[in-house]
Amino acid sequence: MTPSPEPLLTIRELNKSYGDLHVLKNVALEVHAGEVVSIIGASGSGKSTFLRCLNVMEMPQSGFMNFDEFSFDFREGARDQPTPEQLRLLRARIGMVFQSYNLWPHMTVLENVIEAPLLVRKLNRKQAIADAEALLNRVGLYEKRDQYPARLSGGQQQRVAIARALAMKPQLMLFDEVTSALDPELVGEVLALMASLAEEGMTMLLVTHEIAFARDVSSRVLFFDQGVMAEDGPPRQVLHHPESPRLRQFLSRILHEDIARISRENQP
C-alpha cells in the first residue's frame, strides 16, 4: 500500500520521565497510513514507553500529538490536554498488542474477541460474533473459538490477542515485543500473521528484536538509544549501513546472540 500524503500520526517534542529518569527526550515522528515502522534498540532505551505514550496509556510530561482529528498538547495546564472521552475514542482507534497476551482467562476465545466491540463500539451481539468468527478464521483459530486461553499455546494466544485488537477496526496497530515471550518454534506463526497484515495495508508500529522481520517487512526502521530516536530510515539503510557506533554495536550484539541461539538449537 502506498503511504498517504498526509501523516496519520504526528509526534513532536515528546518527553516522558519517571521521577529523575528522563525516558523519552524530545522524540519526533510522522507515520503515514499504510506504513510499517519497526522500532529497535537496547532494553531500557524507551521503545515500549514510546508505544504506550502513543495511545496515552502513559501520559507524557510534554509534547504534541496529532492523530486523525485528535490534536493533543501534553504540557501541564495546556488547553488541548486530552480529555477522558477523547482518550476513550483514541484507544478505540489505536489497537495495541502486548508480549504477555493479556487475555481474559475466564472467557473463551470468542468472548475475548467480542468483549470490546460490544462494550465500546456498541455492536449488537450477532454482528460482534460474526465479525469475531471471521477474524478468528483469518488468524487460523476459528476451531478454537470455544476454548479458554489456558488451553492454547503461546503463539495461539498471541494470535487471539491480535484478533481481539483488530475487532475494534483500528486505524493504527501497536505491537510491543509480541514474540519475546514465545518459544522459538512459535515465533514464526505470529510474525507470518503480522506480515500478512502489513501486506493488506495495516498501519503498524512495532517494537521488535526480530531484525530479519524488520528488514523484510518494514517501510522504515527507528533506532532508539537512551530515550533519543537516534536513527530513522529505510530498513536496509539503517540495518546494513548504520551511521552511529551505538547502532553498529547493537546490531553486532544481536547477530552474536542469534548465532549462539542457532548453535544451541542444533546441538544433539
Shape: globular
SS-derived structural category? alpha/beta
Give the number of helices: 9
What topology, given as strand order, has the largest sheet? 6-7-8-3-9-10
Spatial separation of the terminal alpha carbons: 44 Å
What amount of the residues lies in strands?
15-25%
H/E series, N to C? EEEHEEHEHHHEHEHEEHH
Rg, rounded, reads 19 Å
Work out the number of β strands. 10
Largest beta sheet, briefly? 6 strands, mixed
- Stretches where pLDDT is under 50 for at least 5 consecutive residues are none
Give the proportion of residues in helices: 25-40%
| Mean of all residue-level pLDDT scores | 92
What does this structure look like?
This protein has 268 residues and is an alpha/beta fold. The protein is built from 9 helices and 10 strands. The strands form 2 sheets. Strands 6-7-8-3-9-10 form a 6-stranded mixed sheet, with helices on both faces. A 4-stranded antiparallel sheet has the order 2-1-4-5, covered by helices on one side. A hairpin with a 2-residue loop joins strand 4 (62-67) and strand 5 (70-73). Helix 3 runs parallel beside helix 5 and helix 4 (125-138) crosses helix 5 (154-166). It is globular, with a radius of gyration of 19 Å. The mean pLDDT is 92.
Give me some keywords for this one.
268 residues; alpha/beta; six-stranded mixed sheet; four-stranded antiparallel sheet
In short:
The protein is an alpha/beta fold and 268 residues long. The protein has nine helices and ten strands. It has helices at residues 47-54, 84-93, 109-119, 125-138, 154-166, 184-199, 211-217, 235-240, 245-265, and strands at 7-18, 21-32, 36-40, 62-67, 70-73, 94-97, 172-176, 204-207, 220-225, 228-233.
